[in-house]
Amino acid sequence: MGGAEQTAGAAGRSGGGPVRGRPRSEAVERSIIEGVMKLLEEGVPLAEISIERVARIAGVGKATIYRRWSGREELFCDVLRTAEPPDPELPGTSMRDDLVVLLESLRRRGLANRSSVIMHSVYAQMKSSPKLWKVYHAAVIEPRRLKTLDVLRRGQANGEIRADIDIDLANDLFVGPMLVRAVVRPDAGLEEGLPEQIVDTVLAGLGPAAS
What span, in angstroms and rounded, lies between the C-alpha atoms of 155 and 163? Predict the structure, then answer.
């Protein structure tokens, strides 16, 4: 990804991120995030990773962590964002092109989750913690959903999909098949070209009627 500083900043901009009181140090943030990753690699459950423990392994004071993150949940969100493939820049050439890029990013995250025992374990633990899942949803998942909705609205305004289409439903139609393969069906393929196949199949039903 673009580094701990970028991920932490992204979480902060989305409303669920760290509270900062002085200029950030990329090296310090990286050491803190790497400290959490080291504990996870050693098999320490999220529930047992305290701010005190992270501070010890990172060689910093607790106050240093709290200046950057308001608590464990926000820190864990940034750790996951660092471990995941980066969120993509959209080409902006068309709604279709943007949707393909967004679904390709989702495909890559699915592959990363499958290949990393640590990430798979962390996601499973996170979903069992309502507070942590709520923070992750607000800081990471919801901004991604809103980005896709914005692409669909622009496509609707440009006539790429019909004006009567419900945008929220359209979002589910595009994203749903990839999520099913990435999350619900771990045995299903996440092959290259799948984003284009999904987008083109859905657009065939949502596009403007032929004249």
Answer: 10
